[in-house]
Design a protein that fits this description.
Pfam family, one: HTH_3
Number of domains: 2
Radius of gyration: 18 Å
Shape: elongated
Helix content: 55-70%
Distance between the termini: 42 Å
CATH class of the largest domain: Mainly Alpha
InterPro entries: Cro/C1-type_HTH (IPR001387), Lambda_DNA-bd_dom_sf (IPR010982)
Protein name: DNA-binding transcriptional regulator, XRE-family HTH domain
Number of strands: 0
CATH topology of the largest domain: 434 Repressor (Amino-terminal Domain)
Keywords: DNA-binding
Largest sheet: none
Structural class: mainly alpha
GO molecular function, one term: DNA binding
Length: 113
């Protein structure tokens, strides 16, 4: 698999970030990030997965295996959003609560259309 730097650039631009902002968000040096974008360096698989997660896309998209940049998994971190993490955790433990909340969600989203 070959990393498609142009796809990382496209996602970064869609997020409205410049290279320096993207590097900070990924906790890497601007120079290191720039080497990925200009194709001087190939990121490891783990780094591609981290970039995909951080930029809300998939590693398959960044490798050119799919043309759909939409993620199919969402990770919720207890340290980044403890309330949302607790909420989702409660839903996983209580399937009847999950069903009731999904019904409410569907009604609310249908009313907003």
């Amino acid at each position: 698999m070959k990393f498609k730097a142009e796809r990382m650039i496209k996602i970064r631009e869609q997020l409205g970030m410049n290279k320096a902002e993207a590097a900070r968000k990924l906790n890497m040096s601007a120079m290191g990030y720039g080497r990925y974008e200009n194709g001087q360096r190939e990121p490891s698989f783990q780094t591609v997965c981290f970039i995909a997660s951080t930029f809300n896309t998939t590693s398959d998209y960044l490798y050119g295996l799919t043309d759909d940049p939409s993620p199919n998994v969402i990770t919720i971190s207890s340290s980044e959003d403890p309330e949302l993490f607790s909420f989702v955790n409660s839903l996983q433990k209580d399937k009847s609560l999950e069903k009731r909340l999904l019904e409410c969600f569907n009604k609310l989203t249908q009313q907003n259309k």
